[in-house]
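TA notes, week 10

Several of you asked for a full example with nothing omitted. So below is the full record: structure tokens for the whole chain, then the designed sequence directly under it. When grading your own attempts, check the secondary structure regions first.
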């Protein structure tokens, strides 16, 4: 997960994709800082279909608002 996010950040681009992270990891301050650019972090403990759908919906809506090509 972290390696993917680092490669995604290194790729640059003015309109990064929405990223929703699903983890079972107990995140400390350092790991939360490493996830600062993601749209949403969900723990597996709070995972449900409605929560996941809402996280994806919110992330893609924000991405669409930030990207004029999507309008």
């Amino acid at each position: 997960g972290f390696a993917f996010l680092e490669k995604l950040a290194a790729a640059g681009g003015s309109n990064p994709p929405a990223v929703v992270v699903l983890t079972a990891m107990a995140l400390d301050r350092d790991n939360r800082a490493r996830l600062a650019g993601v749209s949403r972090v969900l723990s597996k403990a709070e995972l449900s279909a409605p929560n996941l759908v809402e996280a994806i919906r919110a992330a893609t809506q924000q991405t669409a608002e930030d990207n004029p090509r999507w309008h």
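The chain has three helices and two strands. Use that as a sanity check on your answer.
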